[in-house]
Amino acid sequence: MRLKIQPARTPLSGTYRPPGDKSVSHRAAIFGGLAEGETEIHGFLDSADTRATLEAMRVLGADVSQSGGVILMRGGQLRAPAGDLDLGNSGTGMRLLAGALAGRPDLSGASLRLVGDESLSTRPMGRIIEPLRAMGADIDSVDGHAPLTLRPRALRGIRYEQPMASAQVKSALLLAGLSAEGATEVVEPGISRDHTERMLPAFGAQLLWGDCQCRLDGPQKLQGTVCRVPGDLSSAAFVLAATLLVDGSTVELIEVGLNPTRDGVLRILEAMGASVERTMVSSGEGEPAGHLRVRPGNLRGVDIESEWVPLAIDEFPVLMALAARAAGTTRIRGAEELRVKESDRLAVMCRELSKLGVQVREYPDGADIAGGPVRGGRVDSHGDHRIAMSLAVLGLVAEAPVEIENAQWIRTSYPGFVDDMRALGAEMEWSSG
Ligand code: S3P
Q1: What is the DSSP letter of 432?
Q2: How many CB atoms lie within 10 A of CB 60?
Q3: Cα–Cα distance between 391 and 379 in angstroms, integer?
Q4: Which listed residue (49, 117, 314, 368) is catalytic?
Q5: pLDDT at 305
Q6: Is 168 helix (H, G, I), strand (E, B) or coil?
Q7: Nearest CA residue ID for atom 13, ligand 1
Q8: Quick one: which of 385, 332, 327, 377 has its CA closest to 354?
Q9: Complete DSSP assignment for 310-364
Q10: What angle do CA 354, 358, 361 make, to 5 degrees?
């Protein structure tokens, strides 16, 4: 499907509430399936990625139903499915589930196959396979890639020092640690999102965490609970960017998840000269959330330091789109992780931005992007939801319409994106192509 974006003729305005957080929704579905008793999930993100994880838990034996927008799960006793576990496009689904299942005693003797789509089958799985094997897991891959074959068996805890900050790797190990004997400790070289650490105690688990380290003494059982999924800052980032770009826009973003391990995008926007007003509505042990207001204004290019990268890892495509309209040059370094996301986001954004006349230079670990006018034209999502939405936002300030091929991938994380943008006044239209 092709998405056509018209340059904005009027400011964007209105109140905007983002869809449920993708990372938290994946975790809620997995923890709810592992936990004994009932789990209620409020605000679950209804997207291709999160539905795949929920479906995987269902075929693994969790009871899943829906009532008035709330997902109800009854888990605790898993069984081997007849077929594959298909995680679609989702790295989070595959990596967390591999860890969660690797030592499950109720699956011992089974052989599970975790498969994904073409993009997921090229993403590195060695980063979880190596430490899971050190815990005793029996896990095979195709040269470090999916499909993964897992034969659950008894695990023992280890201390693992991650070579890079990755919440997916950390979470896979903590979940494996739930069914391992002894302590599982994970140490990271930088901060990565801490949703797993915040959510596990609500499911009755005991763990210690802080300062790039966490420790869980296994084995431990989870108990069902009530989960409230905050709004996804990574989805809201597209609306924030559009509001900053389109002159005169006044959009109030409400109930956005503002976990400090995820808010790097706001700090980078501030460094680019944006004024970001936050009003917190909840804070503390769970997931902090608040309202956001930004005013359109002149953005300037910045040097994005490598320590900011994990805190804004999913927002780089949209930050690169914003950099294309900022005064001066934005320099991104230390961001080689972007090459192993749903697409090679450094290469793809550089290629697609240059099709719109943006001056870019790609580096192995980053890019330089010079701000200036943006032409209209035809670009491609390369099967990556965040590339499609980033280019759509930039299309609002291009000199002529921008058409995005393969934009249907938006459904991966944010099926309501086009409707939400239209409700704020943007002109976007689907066509088959
Ligand atoms: C995620 C962690 C990040 C992020 C991904 C979701 C998670 O990946 O890019 O979209 O939910 O744990 P890494 O932590 O592996 O960088």
Answers
A1: -
A2: 25
A3: 8
A4: 314
A5: 86
A6: helix
A7: 166
A8: 377
A9: GGGGGGHHHHHHHHTTSBSEEEE-S-GGGGGSSS-HHHHHHHHHHHTT-EEEEET
A10: 70
Q: What mean pLDDT is reported for the chain?
A: 97
Residue nearest to atom 5 of ligand 1 (CA): 92
| Strand arrangement, sheet containing 402-405 | 377-380, 402-405, 2-5, 428-431
- Residue 149 has a CB neighbour count (10 Å cut-off) of 15
pLDDT of residue 283: 76
Tokens describing residue 262: 């995820």
Distance 92 CA to ligand 1 centre (A): 6
Which pLDDT does position 8 carry in this prediction?
98
Domains of the chain in start order, with CATH, are 2-20+230-431 (3.65.10.10), 22-228 (3.65.10.10)
Hey, what are 84's tokens? 């594959």
β partners of residue 217: 183
Residue 42 contacts by C-beta under 8 Å, 6 or more apart in sequence?
A: 69, 70, 226, 227, 228, 229
209-236 confidence digits (pLDDT tens): 998 999 999 999 999 999 999 999 999 9
User: Which ligand 1 atom is the nearest neighbour of the CA of 127?
Assistant: 15
Question: For residues 322-334, b (16+ Cβ closer than 10 Å) or e, as one string?
Answer: bbbbbeebbbbbe
Q: Which residues lie with the beta carbon below 6 Å from any ligand 1 atom?
A: 23, 92, 166-168, 171, 192-193, 313-314, 337
Q: In what order do the strands lie in the sheet with 226-228?
A: 63-67, 70-75, 37-42, 226-228
Q: What is the pLDDT of residue 221?
A: 98
Hey, what are 374's tokens? 């943006």
Token reading at 37: 């008793």
Q: Is 48 helix (H, G, I), strand (E, B) or coil?
A: helix
Dist CA 81 CA 64 (whole Å): 15
Amino acid in the structure at residue 279:
T
| CA 125 to centroid of ligand 1, rounded, Å | 13
Beta-carbon contacts of residue 368 (< 8 Å; ≥ 6 apart): 329, 330, 331, 332, 360, 361
Closest to 239 (Cα-Cα) out of 226, 255, 225, 228:
255
Nearest C-alpha to atom 16 of ligand 1 is from which residue? 166
Q: How many CB atoms lie within 10 A of CB 400?
A: 12
* CA distance linking residue 286 with residue 283, whole number of Å: 7
Q: How far apart are CA 352 and CA 257, in angstroms?
A: 30
Residue 367 pLDDT > 90: yes
Question: Per DSSP, what are the bridge partners of residue 332?
Answer: 304, 367
Work out the number of other CB atoms within 10 angstroms of the CB of residue 431. 10
* Residue in the block written with tokens 């090459």: 339
Query: Is 314 an annotated catalytic residue?
Result: yes
- Joined tokens for residue 181: 């004997």
